[in-house]
């Protein structure tokens, strides 16, 4: 594309000397390099170049005293009689442990640190830090002395050995709300029998909450139970610790509190560095100079002023940008600005676009750039007088002077070959091999398209869509269709030479659906019959994409390919694949190769697609391994989406697929996009994560970008930031509208800067942080062993929290875990991330599922990663059928389930209805129209629509949730203790993972111990 006038070489694009050590990022590092913020090795904390965790610079001074308001205080419950109980001994299977790793592992080695004391601390205290509340609980896990066996050290997957006689602590509850400072609660019963006889916990009945009562930890039990050897036996297994779960920070509480505090309000974006409401909160945005958080969210709204501070705290500085985010109907859509033939006004030096951060001077004749400080002449046609405040008189008449987000009409300089673009085209490419015909999929697609093509996206106010459509079917060979309106019948043209793909017809391939409706519908009627008797089971794949790109090239337009594909492409052709799903690699250094796409043909295809503005959406219907890592590679670099319906059956998944297809076809989208993020002096964008393609270090290319796609951008310092001017950023996205107009969408955001780390921690956004960590870890795992990636995540968590403790918190007992208020639920998200199928590394998980999950997350925005990593668990048995509201979710733990209850769980990708064994028969009758749970078969249950209040209410909740999500979720109904309950339980993220991974409580203990280690 022509980048004239758009891409300039800014003064910042060069890597600065001295930055090397800390800009390593995750891109293809040398074999030994480590992923991690600032490129330091995982263990680097102990010997960082600049002395991480210098003695605290008394930054806690100047903080207001605490109006303590711990939400954990209300629920004091002393579980004195309960001990930590640990999972039963596990025979083996360390390899399945997420933390199963050699003795040297940083993750485990921390656990061996001699504790400062053996005394069991059982106090709980609350303290207030700088006006925000720390979290406070005490436990004695860190008091693990030498008894932690080090030789041979158990892997995390093995329950480590517990020190004899050492009972592991309870978490107490914080003192009552008004209490300030550190208050010791009465000791809790840690009365484990001393001596070598360690305690064996009784197995909980089916893993459900234990009855209170003393429990013993088993000989192999340990302080931090990492792994969970999968299998139903274990599922029934280890009882949870009998600690008061209410004493640890609760995500549902944090969400509820924010909703109560900021829900229903108007969020006005006129204040620099203002932290927006949580993504889960329902609020309205009024743009007054900064982009809506729907478009941009940051990991912190106060950047540290120096690189040293950034390095010290290790909190990633990042923005998650969703340039096409859907704007609710009650908010103003973006204004479109036309600066005429000269194009948008830009800074001469850094090429930033006119925005509220430009400072006018000299009576309005010149302006100083808010990004690079260059002073520019105001073009004559743009001149305007200034008022007595030095503001332009037309400030409020010009969106680009007063708003955070707006669009410019781009001139021909911004177009390929200086020619206005043609409207884009959508090409539907249907795999008509045996499986897809037999399953009824081909018929379903053809039927659906007949109505769907009337709903192609339109320009505002237009009658019809300018998008052209084309059709291809394929198995080992490709069939193109001429559907020109003048024809009485569609014509098929076959290309069997898939090695040299070409498009056999130009005229009549891409048509306007309105004009060619009759011929197209005729074709769609015929396709299922044409291939009804096929025996062909082999398919090609790369040539299909190639054909699509060639067609768009020939038509000189951008567009999107909708590929409906079912099997691994084994037919003789470029991009032919073979099964490389070797589960023996799981847990080894080579595990990463399972997720690395095969390069070669696919790499070239990606380049071709991006150059042409050809986005690839892939709908997969696999019955077995299809190598998603490879077939998903082109979609995941072209702004495309990937959908997967395993073992597709029309009756089972048909509706879900059709909903996804409709939404995908209809959604708002821009084509042939290139994005650039400019920043103020002192920092710059260094890394980008998303369904994007990077040809150089600064231009983010997207063949298309739709309302669901988010790009996560990491920033690094290259100089000191000024506290006075703050940190400003401008995201400029050049794209082609569906009508073929070239436009620039601009999002501006200004953050604060501070030399006080307490400001940074106060302004953190946990949901944005976890989005960054998820994407960066999922990229890092392509180059490093998963074990290393997991270790780095854990270490960085401990570092961030230790730094807070050291530099920002008031002095307090070492036994207290103190978390920044804005990050108090960060550990539960981090632990959940570590347990995701992609990162957990279990041979029981399908490689394709893991690769699929990896690619999905890569394109996600903050809202999607939030609910994915902390699903909503909604009790339905207690709901008020007369209210419209969705009942308040409870914490994602089996302890919150009740046998007499019914719960809905959703994470944006899956939805479950869980039926407790003892749920009331009248509720079952109302929902399923059967007299009792026993009358429901365990397989293939569905939720009928019945004419009663309960049924209506549940269906209304489900549909309201579905509307909030980017993909449609198939409702899976599970009965307590049925086999399928496993699928549900893996989403209870506060519990121990079914395939490995610690419970929230254990993870918090582990992190706490690491923090203490770091602080000593
Ligand atoms: Zn500038």
TrEMBL record:
Q: Where is the Sec23/Sec24 beta-sandwich domain?
A: 670-754
Q: Which family does it belong to?
A: Belongs to the SEC23/SEC24 family. SEC24 subfamily.
Extent of Polar residues compositional bias: 71-80
Q: Which SUPFAM superfamilies match?
A: beta-sandwich domain of Sec23/24 (SSF81995), C-terminal, gelsolin-like domain of Sec23/24 (SSF82754), Helical domain of Sec23/24 (SSF81811), vWA-like (SSF53300)
The main place the protein resides is: cytoplasm
Q: A Gene Ontology biological process annotation?
A: intracellular protein transport
Q: Name one GO molecular function term.
A: SNARE binding
Renumbered to this chain, region (Disordered) spans 1-116, 147-250
Give all residue intervals belonging to the Sec23/Sec24 helical domain: 766-865
- Keywords assigned: Cytoplasmic vesicle, Protein transport, Transport
| Keyword Protein transport (UniProt) | yes
Q: Where is the composition biased (Low complexity)?
A: 205-223, 231-240
Chaperone found in the keyword field: no
Which GO cellular component terms, listed alphabetically, does the Swiss-Prot or TrEMBL entry include?
COPII vesicle coat; cytosol; endoplasmic reticulum exit site; endoplasmic reticulum membrane
Query: Which membrane topology term applies here?
Result: Peripheral membrane protein
Q: Which subcellular locations apply to this protein? A: Cytoplasm, Cytosol; Cytoplasmic vesicle, COPII-coated vesicle membrane; Endoplasmic reticulum membrane
**Protein name as annotated:** SEC24 homolog D, COPII coat complex component
Segments forming domain Sec23/Sec24 trunk: 421-665
Q: Indicate, by first and last residue, each region the UniProt record lists as having compositional bias (Pro residues).
A: 151-163
Q: Which domain of life is it from?
A: Eukaryota
Q: Where is the Gelsolin-like domain?
A: 887-957
